[in-house]
Write a structure and sequence with these properties.
There is one protein chain. The chain is mainly α. Helix content is 71%, strand content 0%. It is globular and about 55 Å long.
């Protein structure tokens, strides 16, 4: 396993570029250890490595930003545990790792919906963002989920909409917009929430409501659907 991890880290180092390192700064991604590797190259490396739950765990422990991104594509969703999700979520320190894990791994696990409920009330910025990034990912990927599951989350969205922290605010907006894009019925419910938020005296809630309403107006045009 140590050899596999070192091989992966060496490959990431070889693929790093100044342009990709600058992109981390450009997109507001702060990471203690980062090579600077494009997502396309990370996904290409993941294909070469194949799926391995144990390798994913070892890659995560290295602390390297790109190694942790790799886990999104290397880990086996069926073997991911709730405890692992909590542990990794507490390690999130930027939106890039948070959103990538939610969008490519966590939403494919059997624990995704309970984690949305659990994390939506968290105080930590990136744990709370993870709740809504995961909800947005489920809205896009979970084709079997019933409308009722999403309707149950609208109060959580509304409650979190007053959080002024930038990454939470944007995560909440993303979740509301993706829920409203899922189908006309959920769109109607999401529009009601967005209208209330847009009229709120709270700046963050107003921003989220207006952002969602603009998105829904575009979604309503057939060419954008």
């Amino acid at each position: 396993m140590a050899t596999q991890v070192q091989t992966a880290l060496s490959a990431l180092e070889q693929m790093s570029t100044q342009h990709d390192r600058e992109n981390l700064v450009r997109f507001g991604i702060t990471a203690g250890q980062a090579f600077g590797v494009s997502m396309a190259n990370i996904q290409a490396l993941a294909k070469r490595l194949g799926r391995s739950h144990d390798l994913a765990a070892a890659l995560w422990e290295t602390g390297w930003y790109e190694a942790r991104l790799l886990t999104s594509f290397v880990d086996e969703p069926a073997r991911v545990t709730p405890e692992q999700m909590d542990r990794w979520c507490r390690d999130f320190d930027n939106w890039g790792i948070c959103d990538t894990l939610c969008f490519h791994l966590f939403d494919r696990t059997p624990h995704a919906w309970p984690k949305v409920a659990q994390w939506s009330g968290a105080s930590e910025e990136f744990v709370k963002r993870a709740a809504f990034a995961l909800l947005a990912s489920l809205a896009g990927h979970d084709k079997k989920a019933a409308d009722e599951q999403f309707l149950e989350t609208l109060p959580w969205i509304e409650r979190a909409a007053t959080d002024e922290r930038n990454f939470v605010k944007k995560g909440v907006s993303w979740a509301l917009r993706m829920t409203g894009r899922r189908n006309p019925s959920l769109n109607a419910a999401a529009v009601e929430v967005a209208q209330r938020l847009a009229a709120s005296p709270e700046p963050a809630a107003r921003w989220i409501g207006k952002d969602a309403l603009k998105d829904f107006a575009r979604w309503a045009r057939p060419a954008d659907r």
